[in-house]
Design brief:
Order of helices and strands: HHH
Number of strands: 0
Shape: elongated
Structural class: mainly alpha
Number of domains: 1
Radius of gyration: 13 Å
Largest sheet: none
């Protein structure tokens, strides 16, 4: 469970940094690396979203 939390945390940080780049500089790093809404970029976005949900659930589980 500890490894899952670390992986989810890293993916959430990557997603947050990407949205920060989009907000401040209009640069979407995921699209730059993998293409505009290609299958790989959709998988990356999906993994980041799923990891945010997992991290949220694991955070409340410890309280």
């Amino acid at each position: 469970m500890h490894a899952l939390r670390i992986i989810a945390y890293i993916l959430v940080i990557i997603g947050a940094l990407n949205w920060g780049l989009v907000g401040f500089f209009n640069i979407d790093l995921v699209s730059m690396l993998f293409g505009e809404m290609t299958l790989v970029s959709r998988i990356v976005y999906s993994l980041i979203g799923i990891s945010a949900i997992i991290y949220l659930l694991l955070s409340y589980r410890d309280i």
